[in-house]
Design a protein that fits this description.
The chain is an alpha+beta fold. It has seven helices and twelve strands. The radius of gyration is 17 Å and the shape is globular.
Length: 249
Amino acid sequence: MSKNLKLWFSFVSGDKYTEKDEPFFDLSGDKWAKELENNWEEIRKEIGLLIQKNDESIVPYFNKTLASSAKNWTVFPLFIWGIKKHENCKKCSFTSSLLEAIPNMTSASFSILEKYTEIKPHLGDSNAIYRCHLGLHVPSGLPLCGIKVDTEEREWENGKLLAFCDAQKHEAWNKSDEKRLVLVIDVLRPQFAEKKLWICCKVLGALFWQTLFQHFYIIGHFPAFFRKWMMEVTKYVTWIALKINRSRK
């Protein structure tokens, strides 16, 4: 794994990721990865009850332009770049306890991809993290159900962790006749761990502007230096939000 990466944010750099990086990672030796894999059935049971009840906290992914249909890609967020969704975590207390024990975990959510649904090619928020998928209900392997990062295709497996570089262009699809369910976990890469707080603050600020971008397209045409300034300014607001969130029990 490359240790000389420059910290990269898609909000500033747009649709180009030029760092030399691997598309997929092997984290099987990490203790927390084994812990998740050993408890995948209990995790699936916990979210399964909420899916059966059509829980109101299961919502469309925030960027509604990525899926072939917004209602066909839904998520149940637990942590968003350091922000804990307290009520959701109470509903999935077993899963949340496992997640909070992961060193440098920044985000986690359940991701539900309905049948016959595709997620368009896109780049993630930053190269600061390992994006990990724990297979919980994988209806099929390739070619019907899978993920492509850069030029490499992989398939999910129930109870197995699949880690990849979220900064590289990637896409996913479920062409089977059942829904696909995974637990998504973001963990900071070791070389960026000491910058965890400010990385979270910057990305949260960027997400704020990206949400506005879906309504005001002009933001997407701002030059990179101005978008960098926007992210730097809002990181102080998100820092306050993080402090308030962490003060809650």
